[in-house]
Design a protein that fits this description.
Layout (H helix, E strand, L loop, with lengths): L7 H6 L5 E6 L4 H10 L3 E5 L7 H11 L5 E5 L5 H9 L4 E4 L5 H11 L25 H4 L5 E6 L2 H5 L1 H5 L6 E4 L1 H7 L9 H16 L3 E5 L3 H10 L3 E6 H16 L9
Parallel strand pairs: 1-2, 1-8, 2-3, 3-4, 4-5, 5-6, 6-7, 7-8
Helix pairs in contact: 2-3, 4-5
Bound molecules: 3-hydroxypyruvic acid (3PY) and magnesium ion.
3-hydroxypyruvic acid binds next to helix 9.
Amino acid sequence: MEKVLENPFKTKWKTNEVQYGVWLDIPSAYTAEIAAACGYDWLVLDGEHCPNTITDLLSQLRAIAPYPTHPIVRVLEGDDARIKQILDIGAKSIVVPMVDTAEQARAMVRAMRYPPEGVRGTAAVVARATRWNRVPNYMDRVDESLCLILQAESVTGMANLEEVCSIDGVDGIFIGPVDLATSMGFKGDVSRPEVQSEVERGIKLARAKGKGVGVFALNPEFADKCAAWGANMIAIACDALALSSALEEKLDRFRPGRKKLLY
Ligand code: 3PY
Ligand code: MG
């Protein structure tokens, strides 16, 4: 079990070791716990493309807590109020989607911090983040345990990546190849060489700037390439897709050649 003010994921992310994780797109504490029991380094609870309420996310954080894995919450969008609430329920690592500019990135750094550096509201003593006022000097000590991960996933975001990577308080970049491919005009087709070379450029740039770099790479060959380019956080599975394909495979064994259902 992780200590409240420790973030082993962030500590290791400063090294070259790759941390492999799963994207959780089923809004359930039960399936989150199944994933946590598997042994992945980290799990992203997806608040962007999965219908998670704040209470769903809280239940998943609780279910995962006893296991040796690190929970990361992807927020619906980068705004102060959402980030404050996610931090108060005890998440320490946050992914913000669609960060296109340095101005947006600086706003996210401020959302993670208390005044005067930032704008986080002060009430952690009534929240799970401090185990209800049981973490001495939480406000003085918390910054080191928090990890801010910004997604670069558009042509504009990739053009501004160098500037975003120069900002203190941005711990890492997560490249979203699916949205990037769409932004480049390829409708989510990550296999396009143009997309892959942008991903390679982004990984190398962000690592050279001293940031951790994550990528979403469900194709194992693409994941290997990302690791070789220097990515040190790689999403190699998604619970919803894993469940769906595993169930289909079982059926295929007993109904070989069956007509696949298309909707
Ligand atoms: C993307 O590839 O667009 C992502 O956001 C990864 O989930
Ligand atoms: Mg995306």
